Amino acid sequence: MSTQNIAAPRSPHLSHRKRRFNIEKWGWIYMRASGVLLVVLVFGHLFYNLIFPGKVSILDWAFVAGKLADPIWIVWDLLLLWLALIHGSNGMRTLINDYAHGRFRTLLLWALGATTVVLLVLGTLVLTTFDPCIGGTDNAEFAAICAAAQ
Fold first, then answer.
1. Where are the transmembrane segments (predicted)?
2. Rounded Cα–Cα distance for residues 105 and 38 (Å)
């Protein structure tokens, strides 16, 4: 009876498979990192919109227009949009992979990807091309600002 040496499963000479991009590993890392960032972004957003003004009734078109006139808040909201949408889509992708099979799984993944891309594009366009002076407003002070800006 001969004794054969069995190589360890991860020995370099057994690496006949090429290393591929591991989407599950990076998806897991993304969920943790984006979750931490989203907590900061969401609570900053809530603080600025609900606590900082002192009362909720101050939130109107002029408040949003003033907020989106500041590039810092545009970047803040863009980060919030992108991180939240991709975070949610990654979670849905995991659920689809766990519970759907065959062609239905493929259809759901494509629908999820298309929906995510459309929402990211539309949200980004709204945040980056926002012009508060289009259309009328009931706020006389805001209307005067728009008239002076033109």
1. 27-48, 68-86, 107-130
2. 28
Q: Where are the domains of the chain?
A: 23-149
In whole angstroms, what is the distance from residue 19 CA to residue 125 CA? 38
Backbone dihedral region for residue 72 (phi beyond 0: left; psi -120 to 50: alpha; all else: beta):
alpha
- Residue 64's closest CA among 83, 45, 44, 84? 45
Q: Which residue has the tokens 């929906």?
A: 115
Closest CA to 85 of 43, 121, 138: 121
pLDDT in tens, 58-73: 777 778 888 888 899 9
In this structure, CATH architecture of domain 23-149: Up-down Bundle (1.20)
Model's pTM, two decimal places?
Answer: 0.75
Alpha carbon 128 to its chain centroid, in Å, reads: 15
Cα 146 to Cα 138: distance, rounded to the nearest angstrom: 12
What is the spatial distance between Cα 76 and Cα 143, in angstroms, rounded to a whole number? 26
H or E segment at 58?
A: none
